Amino acid sequence: MPIRVLAPDLAAKIAAGEVVERPASVVKELVENSIDAGASHITVEIKAGGVEQIKVIDDGHGIPPQEVAIAFQRHATSKIASQEQLDAIATMGFRGEALPSIAAVSRTAITTRQPLEPGGFRLELLWGEPQSSGAHGCPPGTAVEVLDLFGNLPARRKFLRSSSAETSRIQELVSRYALAFPAVRFQLIVDGKTSFTSPGNGVPREALLAVYGPQAATGMLEVHGEDPDSGYQVDGFAGAPSLTRANRSYMTFFVNRRWVQSRMLSYAVEEAYMGLLQVKRYPLSALNISMPYEEVDVNAHPSKKEVRFREENRVFSTVQRAVRAVLVADSPVPFLASPNSEIEYASAIPSSFFPRSAFGGTRNSGGAPGPASPEYPGGAPPDAAATQRSAPPLKVVGQLKLTYIVAESPEGMFLVDQHAAHERVLFDRISQKMSEQAAQSQPLLAPVPVELSPAQGETLRSNRESLESYGFQLEPFGDGSYLLRAVPAIFGEGDPAKALLDVLDMTAFEGLVRQKEDVTAASIACHGAIRAGKSLTEQEMTALLEQLEATPNPHTCPHGRPTMVHFSSLHMEREFGRR
Questions:
Q1: Residue 390 sits in which domain range?
Q2: What is the pTM of this model?
């Protein structure tokens, strides 16, 4: 077949396929145009999942009548006019492809009026070709109606999903832009019924409330962070560790208020939650990364879903540090709201609920801090004046089922998981020792032979220097065999060979998205911590609680399980009829 220039209508259909993948793509382009037009109220109406009808109405500045037809010509735009503007794009749209692409695969009508004009203008098109135009009465702003989407491309239409699935995508899109632009009132009408409305009052948390509902919104923590050297800034919300979902779809990111999808940003947030969430659980977030426009390429994807950063590592660290800081400062303690309810988190309780007292000094428990013991390497916690406390002062009451420490405070009763609590203490101690390059090794009385699988052997070879820095000492002993001669000094009782194998397996599994040092430290802490079923004296329990209280993040173990559960005084008084 000879090389030839495609017919204009065929080329237009191919080009439209890059921009208009499905009804949600149409809504996205039209909503972004409305935002660029300075709209304060945007209404989206759809029928049959957007295939039958899509209508986007705004109260923006409108289009001059003489420019309406030009707007439907390919690469016609009012957003940029020079190379400098292309290098620093500050608007949602810029390529001039949205309107002609939409019109090429639908029956389209646009009605528009500028605020100071006495009347409006209307243009109707069929598969991209103008059919009629002229003066038309309408309020200030623009309304674009798209009918019979992909009516001239039945092959494209048959690949669309069900009406409910396409509607769900549009609902997700409108709600995301409501989060990005809280000063704009968004309204979504589905098959004649209002499905979503945002307040549009400029208060971000109220927009969050409209999107996620009251329970999630009250558990979201405000995030503010910046990198002064680069000018990068992170603002928005991150969920308390109790607010988790089974997938990443509730992690929302905006770059200069443009909704984007980015694996790098997802990993940055997940890294911030490391040690706070259980495996295969993901946080909620709605974060906007502000940066100089020339630092990001928004033209990296045909539908502008993805962007490229000039300094990706710096963006990653800015997001990770900002989210981690608020989690460490405000992460709440789980509590039981009802004897028959599941564990919930005190996400509505302000961070000042728990007093930051001097736990290393005199306590109200009536007992002195426990001395150093083999169970708690390192003895008493650091000096109170030098450590910021982030857990409530607890008085030991007893031990339950040789697994949980029962404690009380002015705020009620706490059950503390002794293994998880000790894990947290050891993890922080190991991390501190590593930062000081002071990790200690404990030689074994006799070397222990260890058989490694090929995968474990490869993990050992890749991480041998790191493992040795933690205190492991090994030497080859035949094909796939090693002699384990020393382990980290922080290990208590247990099988040293099993501990090494677990560390290797965890590093191989989790080290791809986590810092490998954290994985190693978490595994070492798990094997060194006291086990469930071990009887503890009151002095040992008191010492453990004091050390837990002195850690910067006492509420979860390194693997994300809660270390303590709270029964509030108010709840207990109500259950016993005292209130």
A1: 333-579
A2: 0.62
